[in-house]
Prior knowledge:
Layout: H1 2-10, H2 19-51, H3 57-80, H4 88-116, H5 122-148
Amino acid sequence: MARLKASSAAKPCAPPRSPSARRTVWSREVGWFAAIGVVSTVGQALLYWALRLWWPPVAANLVSLLVLTVLNTEANRRLTFRQAGAGPVRAHLGAGGLFLLGYLVTSGAVLAFTHARPGASAAAETVVLAATSVAVTVVRFVVLRLAVFRGPGNRRG
């Protein structure tokens, strides 16, 4: 117990950030996240569209989302949340749960669309997939920011 108190007392506390510094970090994170999200959504849509030539919607969505989630998470870890200090294992494990949520929501949307419009083209499915991905991305940012990539000032001890 004494060691625990001594070790925690020896660690300097980070100075609190000013509101303008927090806004700057928040703006930078949102900007990077949005840019990476746009590239990822386009990449997933293109991969999905290509895979739909041979595979059913659910399989095409699974593979396209899996590939782009790994790339997206790594890009966000390195660029968006770089000050958070989350290592690759924590980042990708945290994103894994979000992958499952994203997969269920986007697959559900595409399946509902194909059920409602059985003759719809793969391009129309891709539009539904991309629109649903944008909605999922908002939730993904909040969870990544608050739970996976908590910055030093956000850690609870």
